[in-house]
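Troubleshooting: if your tokenizer reports a length mismatch, compare your output against this known-good record of 382 residues.
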Amino acid sequence: MSETVLETPAPAVVSAPPEPRLNPNPDAQAGKDGNGAGKTGGVGRKIGVALIVLAAAGAGWHFLSAAEVESTDDAFIDGRSSIVSPLVAGPVVSLDVSDNQFVKSGQQLARIDPRQYENDRALAAAVVESAQAQLAAQSYGLEVAKKNFPALLEQAQAQLAAAQATADKARSDHNRQLSLSRQATSQQEVDAARAALKQAEAQVAVAQAQVAQATPAPQRIGETEKAVGQLKGAVDQAQARLDQADLNLSWTVVRAPQDGWITKRNVEIGNYIAPGQQVFAIVGTERWVIANFKEGQLKHMRPGQKVDIEVDAYPQLRLEGHVDSIQQGTGAKFTAFPPENATGNFVKVVQRVPVKIAIDKGLDPNLPLPLGASVVPRVSIK
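Known-good structure output:
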């Protein structure tokens, strides 16, 4: 019987890879390769490093620049606009402008039917003429009164003096007749002297009454002067009505209060318009920017700082301006219903403060810049 002997195979020996040899001159080795790949890789690494350095420098510059600029997209173009309303009522008979037309201050925009106001003016003018005529007549009467009343007083006083002289003579004659004896006179002569005395005394009484009647000459002149004053007041009132009629007639022509563009025309020929009714709006030529900055952005913001302005409607337009003023109150404070933070639960909300920015240059007269157009201002706060 033979035994089978199983041979165990010897374990595989894994030889270690040969150690790499360090090339002391890689550029020389690259040169031996014939295609210059090693040299190109070195230049690429240098360019990459340079780009990283430039990017870091740009990021740092951007960070430093951003720290010196405050900007907001909550900003818009603002300007002066006025509402045109008629001052008198009536139907429109002429409309002389169209939408978005540029007009000059004082230019005629529309005309109201003037016939009623022409009649009112004619009536007021007639009243003025009548009052002036009455005043002229009374003024002449005043001049006459200033002469007549003093003269009448002097005349009455002279007549009184004459009557008193006549009465004195008649009294003397009467007393003489009484002192004579019966043989030297007669009863008829005594009676005649007594009658003459009574008649003279009556004339004195009449003259005294005339003096009393003519004595208040200054008062009578004063009454005439008052009448003249009343008529002067009537003339002034009539003249004021005439002036008002002239104004009403002139107001039948609706004119532009300033230079600007017609907007929101709310009238057509034949419409009946009344005082206070809005018929036109005129947007003026002046422009500025209202930027609503967050309250935290105002720390270093001051009037006079330079501002660069981008207009959303015209990306190619670059405007330059400066901070004009900062409103003394947040936008929420001047709303119809300002917040009452003392009632209920309070949640702090970052407020915005309107800042007025004046535009110094960059406007293009050929590009319309409507009110409310969005802009992005950048304020240099350095």
